[in-house]
Amino acid sequence: MPCIRLLKKNYKIVNFDLNDASLVVAEMQKREEWEHDFMDFVAGSQKWNYHQLIAWLFNADNFFKSFTEWRKTK
User: Fold this and answer.
1) Spatial distance between the Cα atoms of 7 and 20, rounded to a whole number of angstroms
2) Does pTM surpass 0.90?
3) Domain that residue 13 falls in
4) What's the total number of domains in the chain?
5) Considering all CA atoms of the chain, what is the largest pairwise distance in Å, rounded to the nearest integer?
6) CA–CA separation, 32 vs 12, rounded Å?
């Protein structure tokens, strides 16, 4: 089941899922943005431990919504 739909100029719908999220995370890790930048942003003022945060992000909808908000700060 898709979590996010992107409507491109040619009206083709692109569905993002956890497979796409893993590619994004891999690139973030290469750029050293995952551990202390993105994770800190997502955790915010929450009292989550690392494992709870990862479990929450495992939902593709949560991940891409957080990723979109984080990118707006860049």
Assistant:
1) 16
2) no
3) 4-72
4) 1
5) 43
6) 32
Phi, psi at residue 25, to the nearest 5°? -60, -40
Give burial (CB, 10 Å; 0-12/13-18/19+) of 28. middle
Tokens representing residue 63 in the block? 């991940």
> b/e for 61-72, b at 16 or more Cβ within 10 A?
eebbebbeebee
Q: For residue 38, with 0-12 CB atoms within 10 Å meaning exposed, 13-18 middle and 19 or more buried, which class applies? A: buried
**Which residue has tokens 């915010």?**
44
Strands (E), 1-74: 4-7, 13-16
pLDDT per position as a tens digit, 3-52: 445 555 655 555 666 677 888 888 888 988 888 888 888 888 678 888 89
